[in-house]
Amino acid sequence: MSDALYDLTLVVPCYNEADNIPLFYKTATECFEQAGVGIEIVFVNDGSQDGTAQLLRRVVESARGKHAVQAIDFSRNFGKESALYAGMQVARGNNICLIDADMQQTPHDALRMYRLLMENADVDCVAACQVDRKEGFVLKLFKRAFYRTFNGMADDISIPANVSDFRVFRRPVRDALLALPERERFSKGLFAWIGFNTLEIPYEAEQRAAGTSKWSFRKLFRYAATGIFGFTTWPLKIAVWLGSICAVAAVIYLLSVLAEYLLYGTNAPGYPTLACLILLFGGLQLAVLGVIGEYLGRDYIENKRRPIYLAKEHLDSTKE
Ligand code: UDP
Ligand code: MG
């Protein structure tokens, strides 16, 4: 066993969640206290503009002598994935739970998942799979297409559809995640990549207690791209296929033009065909270049080896 101080660490990323944090804090502490589970809560303020930082400072102060609460304050918005990373880094629990601040994922469910983990010695991670998400038709279609594409292309991993970041796992899983150094983090893929025994349980997300979701369609699209470009080199190989198909097509076309000329003596009318072909190949080449550029850009960013986040402040209710 490790020298962990608590049974469970709740890692809570917060971006403009000042209206939700008090409720979350109260519910979580009460729920786990009643259950006799010793917890620590790590709030990560991901560059909020709504006073979350000040609120967290007060929460840590009021927790002194009662609860173990840490608050990390980022210097700007680095994204949820970075917030989760920071939280896991400072976590001192034997087990870790990743949970949102907006009460869509309740501490009671977290407790249920924790108990499941404790009851099943061979399970390393319990993950919540969202059933029946209350989302628009287009979004649902887009997500389904994403999972299909991702699992079809990804080289050695596959991610189950609708699996969420709402998870409870043992410390070695946390260590494995922290050992993956990438800047562009896509946790669904990272969890799949590290392996470990994962138990998926269905769960229905609640309505947000307050505020709105921070995901826009654009952000989701970028997230999906991070997943695909981060976990497979398949798009790079498209060039080989496209090139080969075009070459074969070109030979067939050439033969047909030649046959037409020899049999009927017709001069192939060239201009429109030529224009179309130039456009087609120009487009294909640019698209393939774009794919290469995607990888090059990501490689460039990873190679700068900048930190995954920058924190201004780290408070801890158990320390002076
Ligand atoms: N979040 C964050 N940084 C961001 C966006 C979101 O830390 O840039 C946090 C947010 O405060 C919440 C969690 O990530 O606790 C999930 O975000 P949200 O509720 O917007 O996503 P959804 O539940 O709609 O998937
Ligand atoms: Mg939410």
Describe the structure.
Residues 10-174 form the Glycosyltransferase 2-like domain. The chain crosses the membrane at residues 238-259, 271-296. Keywords: Membrane, Transferase, Transmembrane, Transmembrane helix. It comes from Senegalimassilia anaerobia. This is Glycosyltransferase. The chain is of the alpha/beta class. The chain has two domains: 6-213 and 308-316, Spore Coat Polysaccharide Biosynthesis Protein SpsA, Chain A (Alpha-Beta Complex); 233-304. Helices cover 51% and strands 17% of the residues. It is built from ten helices and eight strands. It has helices at 21-35, 52-63, 80-90, 107-119, 137-153, 171-178, 187-194, 217-231, 234-264, 271-303, and strands at residues 6-14, 39-45, 68-74, 93-98, 125-130, 163-170, 198-203, 311-316. Strands 7-5-6-4-1-2-3-8 form an eight-stranded mixed β-sheet, sandwiched between helices. β2, α2 and β3 (68-74) form a beta-alpha-beta unit. α5 runs parallel beside α8 (217-231) and α9 (234-264) packs antiparallel against α10. The radius of gyration is 25 Å and the shape is elongated. It starts with 5 loop residues before the first strand and ends with a strand. The model has no long low-confidence stretch (mean pLDDT 88). It binds uridine-5'-diphosphate and magnesium ion. Residues 100, 102, 104, 208, 213 line the site of magnesium ion.
Features:
single chain, 320 residues, eight-stranded mixed sheet, binds uridine-5'-diphosphate, binds magnesium ion, transferase activity, Glycosyltransferase_2, transmembrane helix, transferase, Glyco_trans_2-like
